[in-house]
Task: structure prediction
Amino acid sequence: METDSPLVDPRRSPCPVACSLDIFGDKWTLLVIRDLLLGRTRFKDFLASPEGIPTNILSERLTRLARHQLIVRAPAVRDSKRAAYRLTEKGLALLPILQTMRDWGLRWEPGTEVRLQG
Amino acid sequence: METDSPLVDPRRSPCPVACSLDIFGDKWTLLVIRDLLLGRTRFKDFLASPEGIPTNILSERLTRLARHQLIVRAPAVRDSKRAAYRLTEKGLALLPILQTMRDWGLRWEPGTEVRLQG
DNA sequence: ATTAAAACTTGCAAAAAGCAAGTGAAAACA
DNA sequence: TGTTTTCACTTGCTTTTTGCAAGTTTTAAT
Result:
């Protein structure tokens, strides 16, 4: 007898906002996306960001992002075994969300500033 | 001797995206904002949304949103003691974020649909 | 061949989420 | 006016997730 674990995460509702949050509604996921949009591709690069994501969380988030097809895992260089992560079209499409979040932060949260290249 | 609890939540970094996520980077907060943008103002209204936020979570989120000045708590009707919540200018300014999230969900997550008025 | 770095995994403690039930004040109703 | 119902929470408890440190294994560099 086998314990069934669902292949896809259940949605809380059909609302596109709720559904989006089911995928990336947490403290860390969109920061990984931010780094990817800035051109970072490696596990160590994400770890190097100033927010300090823990390794187990990063690992879990990358798996989850790949499962939702926002990123793909591929060899870092040709024939290499080391992992690199890249945004898919679906993942790239998050750019407007990140931009509006950045703009909101800059406008309404004093002391915020864009440090990272992009 | 008094235990010191910080008046403001510590920021993980000065990045405006990270700072934004420190405020509303979770599964529930932006759904409350969504409801507020749709004109809902009462505790029971937020509870009635299809995602089913638990009462203790809603309570904590409303407190937190007020602390960050995204909403204000005011009497529901003049001289009433019952609470109503309304977006401040800072909270209203989240509209573009919610719009882009909605658009992304509709474009990339099959089966999502806008049910709620707005 | 040795060493070092990269990309994880594991174990455990702490924090947060989720659930059901309870409470007290306020409004509605008889 | 007294009773009932609704509202806006709070509390207690269990489960899940997070955070941290340490360990492991594969890959690359020297």
In short: The CA atoms of residues 34 and 98 of chain A lie 7 Å apart. Chain A has a mean pLDDT of 91.
